[in-house]
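Hey, quick one: can you model this chain's 3D structure?
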Amino acid sequence: MVLLVTTSAVRAGEIAAAERRIERAAETARASIVTVFTEKRSGWDLTGVVVGARDVVLTLRKPLLEKGGGFRRDLRIRFPGGGKTVPAEVMVDDEEMNIVLLRAVGGRGRTIKPRPTRDVSLGMWVVLVGNTFSSGRESEPVVSLGIVSGIHKRRDGTMTFHASTLVNPGSFGAPVVDLDGGLLGILGAAVTGAGGQSVVIPYETVRKRFAKSRKAARILGAKPYPRPRASSVADLFGKVMEAAARTARDAVVGVRSGKPLSESAPNAGKPSERPASETPPKKEKPKNKSEPPGGPRRPRPPAPARVPGAREGHDRSSGIAVAEDLVVCPLRVTGWPGPRRQLTIDSPDGSSSTATVLGTDERLRLALLRVRGGGLKSCRAAPESAAGLAAGRFVAAIGYPHGNPGSQHAHVTFGIVSRVEALAGIHPALHAIQTDAGISGGNRGGALVDLEGRVLGVILDVNDTSGLGYQNPTRRGAYGPNAGLGFAVPVEVIMAVLPRLKAGATLKPGRLGVSLTADRDGVHVRSVAKESGAAAAGVMAGDRITKLNGKSVPDMAALRRILAEKAAGDELLVTIRRKNRELSLKVTLR
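Sure thing. Here's the predicted structure for all 590 residues.
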């Protein structure tokens, strides 16, 4: 698998061959798509695909309905390449799946070849060919390349799958094809919570739904052709992505929170200081009307922002198993900063079990859970540190989308490392890996992995960056203007604090209490905050920090990596250079 990304294995000719194959797939699909619209209603143009007898079109149902529920009488179909526009008749429709078969009266299009659903696999390359932003009557179709990012099987045996192709309203109903132009399904009018992944209705599912209609069954009876062997870099890369997802998803679990735990529960936080038998004190009457009973009210901790799509009083996320009975997950799913909640772990094998909180890290916004019964498969950490990563490295994000609470159907999104040391200027513990792989609240806490399925980091909760300038503060619970970028805490940072979390520690942000500046000579103290640990230890403005706990500090990045492992209350041996003297001072982080 590693050879795929080396220059010796991927030659320019192979890449060009893969590009030509994608182009041919797009051309094949483009010849079979049409625009479906109504004469008296603008802005609702859909994409459809010719699936039988050269004039039968498959598309979505709801946008073609009148307000009263019936189909509009002015339905029209326009063929590609400046083709003619003809009336459309409804043959058969399915309200539950939101699909309809139309007959183009007098039209002739090229019928697309179907592909078996069994060929759909996680990480497989797919191509979407559809119209752009409801302007398909006059514009050329748009092509988008992506991968199969999730497969969701229903209890009735049908399935849907999800793709990372770009989505816009004009492409609803558009065909999603493989690299040979074979029809896998059509784009539904929905997007999952997993980083904007499109929902695809498989063509074989459509055939099964319309099997009761003899006319539709005869039209849709074209035999799917088998998938050929892998013959290009694109195919091979899909296999690599599939293998990476299969390796890593065994260690990724779903985490669900329920109702708040009672004050007497062992996992509810601090126990009550008053014995249960003691009569509660009577509330004092206020001395004046403006003061509440019992004196001035204490400020309540802020309520956690509810994840969009989650039920009231419930939350969900992903988590990573770091041992057979230990899971790292976002801190907020435990109820933080309010009372802790009941927790359920959904394993990849379909089983569920309860969990309790062992330790928390408020700096990294992560919690360590003990899973009852264990039996989990722990993750495989990447051998290299985040410092060894570079922008442009291929990565995949694996987690559970919003749309499936308690579901064990993991989703994988593909991208690259966008930046290392991200968020480091806001807090030392957050020197995160930044990626353009699709990230959402559903796969927060999931794994950011390399092409061998090894974990590079734990995906940060995008909602929990609200105090870090990465969220719109006026919309609580929204994701804000993060341009679709996600962040992950490097796995080596988590492993460094794991022993403390196992011991039940609650790690809070710890600060030196200094403002710093860096130049060619190193890191210099610009100012020292009053009543800080640095001030108490005797650190002064103008000092140059050369070492922390005996480790060299040549630049700010090195200082941040050392501070990332420390919390409030920890003691640091700070070596400074003051004029011509070298001093070692013990600083307690506060």
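One thing worth noting: The two ends are 46 Å apart (CA to CA).
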